[in-house]
Amino acid sequence: MIAWIKRHFYYLIGLMIIISFVIMSVYVLYFTDLFILKEIKVFNNHRVSKEEIIKLTGLKGGERLFRINLNALERKLKNYPLIEEVIIARRLPSRLEITVKEREGLAILIKGQRGYLIDKKGVIIGGILPNDYLYYPLVEIKNEKWKDNFLSFLSWIKENKNYLPVFENFSKIILEEDKIIFTTKNHLKIYFPLSLKEDWIELYKNLDRIMVYLYENQLIEKVEHIRMDYPYGRALIKFRS
Fold it and tell me: Are 228 and 193 in contact (CB under 8 A)?
C-alpha cells in the first residue's frame, strides 16, 4: 500500500512539474515581452517591394511573435495579384521571415486600349514596367474558348528554348477565332490552326526544322510568312517580293 502511494505521489509530482512547465512556457511565449516582433525580412521578391509586402501584412512591430497567426498572414499575402506562394517562419527571438514566389509574367495582354502583364493562367499581375516590352510579347485573345489551351501553349514555347523561334523573338501573338498568328520582331508572320496543345507542339517542332533550314541557308530575312495551317505535315512559305 505504501509503495503504491509513493509511486502515485511521484507520478503526481512529475505531472505537476510538466503542467507547470507547459503553463510557464505558454506564459513566456504569449504574455511576456521576451519574444516581440522587431524585424521582418523578405526574400525572393522582385516586382513587389519589401515595403509593400510588409504593408500588406498589417504588422507594425511590437506584436508578440507567437500571437501572430501565420496561416492568416499567408492567406492575406496570397490574395495580392503578384504573389503566387508564401512561406512565413518565426525566427527567435524577434524576427519574421517571409519568402514569396511571385507570379511569373508570360505576356502583355492587350485589353481595350491598355496592356496588362499576365501569367500562364491568364491572371493579371499588374501594370507594365518600361522594360516589359523587351521581354514579353503583346497578346490579343479574340477567342475565349481556346484561351486556356493558348496560354498553356505559349508557356510551353517559353520553357522550351531549344526550338525556333524562341519565345523572346515574338513581338505579338493573336488568338483569332480560327487560328493563331505569331509576329516576330523581324516582322515574320507565322500561322497556326486552332488545335489541341499536343498538336500545336508537334507543329512547332516542324516549324523549328523549317526555321533551322531558313537560317542555315540565309533565307530567313526574305520570308514574309509561314503557314502551318495546311494539311498536317505540310507548310507554305511565302517569300517577300
Answer: yes
Distance CA 233, CA 21 (A): 75
Domain limits, the chain? 39-102, 107-239
Contact of 189 with 183, CB cutoff 8 Å? yes
Measure the CA–CA gap between 96 and 58, rounded to whole angstroms.
Answer: 13
Is residue 123 exposed (0-12), middle (13-18) or buried (19+ Cβ within 10 Å)? middle
* Cell numbers representing residue 202 in the block: 508537334
Q: Are 191 and 229 in contact (CB under 8 A)?
A: yes
For 36-78, write each residue's pLDDT tens digit.
899 999 999 988 899 999 999 999 988 888 889 999 999 999 9
Global pTM reads 0.73
CATH class label, 39-102: alpha beta
Which pLDDT tens digit goes with each residue over 170-184? 999 999 999 999 999
User: What is the second-level CATH architecture of the domain 107-239?
Assistant: 3-Layer(aba) Sandwich (3.40)
Q: How far apart are CA 193 and CA 176, in angstroms?
A: 10
The one-character DSSP state at 104 is P
Torsion-angle region of 49 (φ positive above 0: left; ψ -120 to 50: alpha; else: beta): beta
Which residues is 183 bridged to in the sheet?
A: 172, 189
The string over 131-163, giving b where at least 16 C-beta atoms fall within 10 Å of a residue's C-beta and e elsewhere, is ebeeebbbbebebeebeebbbebbbbbbeeeeb
